[in-house]
Known about the structure:
It is a single chain. By secondary structure, this protein is mainly alpha-helical. It has one domain (9-106). It contains 3 helices and no strands.
Amino acid sequence: MRVIYVCKCKKDSEVYYKNQVGCGLSYFTGFKRQKGYGIFSNILRLAIPFVQSGLLELSKLALKTGNNIVSDVESGKSLSGAFKQRSEEIKSELKNKILNKLSRLQQGGA
C-alpha cells in the first residue's frame, strides 16, 4: 500500500514568517507614522518653510534688539526704558517686514 508523503517544511516556513511579521499577521501592516497625503499633511508641508523663515527673521531681530538694549544700558539709560523703546522699534519693524512679505506673496514673488 502506498502512502502519500506530505512535507511539513512548507507549514514550518509559513509559521516562521508569520511569527517574524508579528502578531501572526500574514500581511504588511506598515509603520504607524507613515507620511500621508491628507489635507493636514499638505498644509504642514506648505507651512513649514514659511515658519522656518519667520523664526529665522525673528531670531535675527531678537539678537539685534538685545544688542541694542545692552548698548543703551551701557550708555546710561535704565533697563526698563531701553526695553520699552527697543520693543516698540522691533514691533514696528516686524510689522513692516510681515506686510512687505505678504505684499510680495500676493504679487507672486517669493
